[in-house]
Amino acid sequence: MKIKNRHRKSFALRCCATMRSPLPIMVCSMVGCIMIIHFYMVSHRTDVEKSQARLRQISATRELGQTEEESFQLPPPRSRRSPRAIKRRGPRKPPTVIDEFLDDSSELRSFFFPHRRTAVDPSKEGNDSMHFYPGRQWLDTEGNPIQAHGGGLLYVESTGTYYWYGENKDGPTYQAHRKASARVDIIGVNCYSSKDLWTWTNEGIVLSGEETNTTHDLHKGNVLERPKVIFNDRTGKYVMWMHVDDANYTKAAVGVAVSVSPTGPFEYLYSKRPHDCESRDMTVFKDDDGTAYLIYSSDDNSELHVGPLTGDYLDVTGDMRRILIGQRREAPAVFKHRGTYYMITSGCSGWAPNTAMVHAAETMMGPWETMGNPCAGGNKIFRATTFFSQGSFVVPLRGLPGWFIFMADRWNPSDLRDSRYVWLPVGVGGAADEPLEYSFGFPLWSRVSVYWHSRWRLPEGWRGFR
Ligand code: DGJ
């Protein structure tokens, strides 16, 4: 009777009943043990793998953060003054390094602008493969010098591809009038693609200059600088923002273009003065929550302005903050690490290099604090001139939290098409060297360093870190 009842009971109870015999109990316990051991091993293995990956990252980034020293000797002044001239005007002053840098007949020319035969060439295999050489010519996969000045990168996750947008300056350099700064006619915005950040394929001109219509913003006689592209997840469109100006930089506006593909063609929409303010050097930054911001030098370059874009990224909203007032900064490049926003800027000295500064903020809208010069290594002059370059963008290095690439231009005002690229590792970490005055001796922000290397590469297997 008892057995009959048990049969009527649930399956679970039936199982329990069968377990009265020792064999199934043993089997169950063994299976349990095996599962526990398996789970332990799997979780232990992922822990071990994680810490191995972490160690790999630490040792890989150690090299990025090692600084290199540089030295060079300034040549003596080329002509001596006659005794009469010395009496009248004193002895000739030795040239400054900036004078030498700007002088295309300087003996130091090949130091700043190394010869074509030293070019970084992805078609050549060997010791130099995958190495960055700041200041050397950099060739694309077809063997032509990369023309993407004042540029920025966009990463497209779905294809693991980086796109580099920048000014095509492959034309003659001239001065529009005696007092004007050197210029090249607008050709357009070039785009290059790469999966490893070193081998770049030319995708062509994705936004063209205008040859004939003199009323067009992008007429060749005007200025198109610092193009940056961001992707709008909501509209599925690639949106390009750029500085558009007339030859005398009095228009001081931003231009907007849009495309359904990262490789264009981009349709030019319009230009405007954002928030009714002058806008010269600029950048855009897309935050993790999808909000994008325009940051631009304004009010005769005396301050920067920052404000969010509309949801479709095609315009600015009415919200704007004035930041770094009176500091006269340009060439903003924004990046974010562990919830803090950082921005590297340059001073304003035309095509001549000057000292970079890094700023930090808890929100994009500020307040922004100036932390100091991020350049590390090289020598005093290198650090004071941003390694003879001017920043344009900061790229986060995927899989290496706290590591970035500083993209900068070494402008060559006597032949702008031969301006070079200076790409260097940036590390965020550790306390800032100099605590800010009001922080009671405690540094508020982590130190940001741009490390000088005459030759460097991304960590071996970097693409595998993702
Ligand atoms: C410095 C800016 O950063 C560049 O983009 C360019 O506008 C030059 N000035 C022109 O002198």
TrEMBL record:
Q: Which UniProt keywords apply?
A: Glycosidase, Hydrolase, Membrane, Transmembrane, Transmembrane helix
Per its UniProt record, what InterPro entries does this chain match?
Answer: Glyco_hydro_43, Glyco_hydro_beta-prop_sf
Q: Where are the transmembrane segments?
A: 21-41
Gene3D superfamilies in UniProt: Glycosyl hydrolase domain, family 43
| Region listing for Disordered, in residue ranges | 60-98
Q: Name one GO biological process term.
A: carbohydrate metabolic process
Q: Which Pfam families match?
A: Glyco_hydro_43 (PF04616)
Q: Where is this site: Important for catalytic activity, responsible for pKa modulation of the active site Glu and correct orientation of both the proton donor and substrate?
A: 281
What are the recorded GO MF terms, alphabetically?
hydrolase activity, hydrolyzing O-glycosyl compounds
Name it. Uncharacterized protein
- Chain intervals with Basic residues compositional bias: 78-92
Family under the similarity heading? Belongs to the glycosyl hydrolase 43 family.
